[in-house]
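request received
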Amino acid sequence: MHDARSSDPTRVGWMNAYPPPVEKRILVSDASAYRFPQIRWSFSHYQELYPTRPIDRGIGPIRPIDLNLRDDLDAISFTPTGSNEPMRWEQSLDKNFTDGIVVLHRGKRIYERYFGALRDRGHHLCASVTKSFVGTLAAWLIDEGRLDPKAPVIEWVPELAQSGFAHASVEQVLHMTTAIRYDETYANPEADIWKHLKAGGVFPRSASDQGPGSFSDYLLTVVQSGSHGEQFAYRTPNTDVLGWILKRVANQSLSDMISERIWQPMGAERDAAMQIDTLGFEFAGGGLLAVLRDLARFGEIMRMEGKQANQQIIPKSVVHSICQGGDQAKFKPAGYSGLPGWSYGYMWWHAHDDHQVFTARGVHGQTIYIDPKAEMVIARFASHPIAANAQIDPHSLPAYRALAKHLLREG
Amino acid sequence: MHDARSSDPTRVGWMNAYPPPVEKRILVSDASAYRFPQIRWSFSHYQELYPTRPIDRGIGPIRPIDLNLRDDLDAISFTPTGSNEPMRWEQSLDKNFTDGIVVLHRGKRIYERYFGALRDRGHHLCASVTKSFVGTLAAWLIDEGRLDPKAPVIEWVPELAQSGFAHASVEQVLHMTTAIRYDETYANPEADIWKHLKAGGVFPRSASDQGPGSFSDYLLTVVQSGSHGEQFAYRTPNTDVLGWILKRVANQSLSDMISERIWQPMGAERDAAMQIDTLGFEFAGGGLLAVLRDLARFGEIMRMEGKQANQQIIPKSVVHSICQGGDQAKFKPAGYSGLPGWSYGYMWWHAHDDHQVFTARGVHGQTIYIDPKAEMVIARFASHPIAANAQIDPHSLPAYRALAKHLLREG
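response:
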């Protein structure tokens, strides 16, 4: 099952009858919805598994993305990180358990593929790509002067006064430089990420579970460990705290903010949605569901300094703030050997390379990859068996880089 | 709380904070989501409570419904059934716990109001209005020759061979003339409807509940009581069986059928959705979520014999079949004293009156009311405290009739 072909969900036939036979069922209650290879189906059927809050695309027409399909991309060769064997672009798609991929060059679709359970009109779990939307909203509210990055978190969320966020500032959660005790190693079944996901209902709780039963209750239990502001540590609760702050600042749900500020103005392809817990708390850290071309639209707007055609969708100053990136010195101790010189800022990953690449990244390979120098945006959905980008990047980042170089060379 | 103003969900403040205080929470797990006055909020936030399957509106433009608002409707007077006191149309809205209402006259919007938790772009639970969509799909597949109304149910769903549907035909479930043991009295906490809803996850199941855990498993437990085909009895499992049959006939989900045959061609306002159980079985008996103007669009198409402008959305022959109605003689013994001379056929309610009225009806007052003679279509969402149209009709049917007469008189 550990390759893309044999785990192809349409081949396996998950949930493919009324009712599906027992061995083809995918349930939240037994945690199979979050297991590989079931995620190859469930990430493309998330509203069918969980409560969600719709993100309205509004009543306007869909903004078309011009098509300029090219057949020279599949043959592009790259060398995966840590390997001597070259690989073709086309091979990288299966290798990365890609569910869908769109490549824009100068705003036009030059490449588009869907696999397995995903179709062009289908929603997919964005996972931590969600964080980059939330970070963008935060930068926006800061830009509007409504949110002071130096303000303490508890100015907006006094409920956190007894938690590890009590002495953190807005910008520390925004750039994930808080020092909290939180193990996000998906491979460790005892890791905090699972308690977190259980609290929010993503993962089932046993009847005897005395732990927190909502995202917000979970955040109250997070404790400080070390000094805030000293170094970057990728911890999802930061985004949920940030989401909580934004909802208080804007007096609006994240779904409505995304709808009004991004989805409606950009002429989105389709309504999106946010996974919520039973108290209506949106999973800011990873709950966005969207169709792939809408991620591409958003990526293209970010590449164009907030503009779409002649319309400024996101203020240029907001995009500029984000593109400054985070603090590379604070990023370094986190030990991402595959991301040398990178930083994390405004909940985006910044390469600080000669292409000025910045990306949104989800834990099973979901991504928005923006290469300003190559005038290229890649949006990808994936359902990789290993929840760790360190396992996915070796066949992704060099492939993206090779594609960018190809476009720079061939035009 | 038992009037529309005091139960107004925005006034009460249900789920209106992050997180909401305990006394303002609405949960599926404690059944509060299905209790009055909480339904005044939950029926307008159903995707936030339950898993749902999206119904794609497609990529085309929204078909506008021309606006011709009139200010003479609120003052229309009618006499509620069983009363001597006249009531104004406007008063009837609160009396019926209306969440939203649209009136079309000759295809134009002459009246439109939203209350409480509902907005024009908001989804609402259609409840048994869903059945009329499913019945329309059935009539359509029959019209195409793909479904024989005389065929036994078990020709399509052999799983039901040991159930009360074993000897029923497709047309008996379609017109609800099966004889099954099923108590649909919502006021009785021991009624079968609650077991049915529990099986599908609409209503919470206790950990010790040994009953069926899915809609399809529930249907297997329904037993026959009497002879099929002799008289009408309104029983929701018939629609779920019909939905099961349609999915087998079309090899497609109900959501996809509604999307491809109705939502996309009619230029729907917004994606709709179907509530599903944990096995992906759509609640054909009551799980449609839609925005109000899309119900109005569908009603107008039905009024126009399947046409929208110059486009035949639903074949005329299908609408003609439906408009024949059901068997009045078989309807009569069911004892609906407020619906004299009516029938139920193709999962629509037919007045057989001088206006040729036919309607789709949901248990808390949701409706599509089509009056061909008055060239009028009414779409209404409501969250009436009493789950019984016999309690709602006295302030609805005479109001609709008075409105129709007014339009016929005033033009």
